[in-house]
Queue: 2 jobs
Job 1
Amino acid sequence: MLNEKVAALCNEQINKEFYSAYLYLDIANYYADQGLDGFANWYTIQAQEERDHAMLFLQYLQNNGEKVTLEAIAKPDKEFSCHRCALEVGYEHEQYVTSLINTIYEAAYAVKDFRTMQFLDWFVKEQGEEEKNADDMLKKYDLYGSDPKGLYSLNSELAARVYTAPSLTL
Ligand SMILES: [Fe+2]
């Protein structure tokens, strides 16, 4: 059994990860509506990754004999008023998720829960990658997105992204 606070935070994280998937599907829908199918593909795959994260937290709790409680997933409430705005939402959201992972890590560290810390190490690294990916999207958009030919090329590049399962297995 895990520490009560650590288990509660891990359980909450399941919901946060599913919300992340919802938010990224919303962003994908926005880009699909704008005719940017490559951007939509990139965020649809991002949504799949978030579902994987949710399932990893769920599996981790179950592996440790903890009961899982699924709560309602909030409606995505962000407005996307421009192509760049949706990318900004993605970047800010990843920074927020990093803070959530850090909060769970702090709780595990406080009670010397080395098992949970070891589990979370993968997520600490993953968040570094997620923030970099989101920042790279903004940089690429700023370099190429304002020109129609550049935007077309960037959209084609993002259309080529394929889903890969997470490297962490439990
Ligand atoms: Fe995630």
Note: The chain has a mean pLDDT of 97.
Job 2
Amino acid sequence: MSVYDLTGRKALVTGGARGLGAGMAEALARAGAAVVIGDIQEEAGKATADSLRESGATAAFVSLDVTEDASWESAVSQTIDELGGLDIVVNNAGVEISGLVADLDPADVRRMLEVNVLGTALGVKHAFRAMRPDGPAGNGGAVVNISSVAATIPFPGIAGYSATKSAVDRLTRVAALESGKLGYGVRVNCVYPGLVPTEMGAKLAADMETLGLWPSAEAAVGDVIALTPLGRLGEVADMADAVVFLASDGARFITGAGLPVDGGMGM
Ligand SMILES: NC(=O)c1ccc[n+]([C@@H]2O[C@H](COP(=O)([O-])OP(=O)(O)OC[C@H]3O[C@@H](n4cnc5c(N)ncnc54)[C@H](O)[C@@H]3O)[C@@H](O)[C@H]2O)c1
């Protein structure tokens, strides 16, 4: 069996209703994992889980607001009940609200801190509690956090977002260290996706025009591509395959790492 095969593994993907999270859930399922999608968008989340089941995978949806400790508690226990264990948690749920530093809106920054930083931190917390040897799943496993190329290079119009994604990077390292030292058996890594034209990515590009930073969304995207050695935008599958790798035994000696999946933009 390939070291990248996830047959028998049980995964929870946050923000899996659409966009990158839906692609990650699909790629994990294709690699053999049983997958639960956790999201605040119930209808879209159920539809994504249905389509995974139609393709032959074991998949389900749980309602999860990553900013709420109690919501995590219940989503993780439902996942373990549904799948019979938990080996992989992908902390993908995130929000991006563009804005110039000079016009910073505290409510927008608070929202990004809540979802991107607190939501990811709670995800790691509940993954550890479930997967460490004394937890209800108890077999160790892998956590993959979704940071961003915005944590590795400065890009105008997204200061608050970049700050939260840099926090995800640091949180990943500390969590990996604690897990190792305390014998949890859980590897913790993050990926830095480049720009992908999901709803979030397309809105970010449009915001660059609204903020007066580029003459059009197309011009902003053109400059991103020009800054990318591989010469194109990211695709959902590019990110999803990297998550499968970090979740798999192929990455068994990798923890506390941040993997750029950005065509070289952030090098
Ligand atoms: N698209 C990009 O260009 C890009 C680049 C770098 C990093 N990322 C990161 O990748 C992740 C996914 O991005 P995307 O482009 O798919 O975004 P998206 O907006 O298309 O999807 C985000 C998903 O997260 C869910 N979500 C939001 N708040 C939540 C909460 N409180 N609890 C549970 N779920 C919640 C949404 O309902 C949605 O399904 C995010 O963390 C984002 O910051 C995206």
Note: Residues 197-233 form one domain.
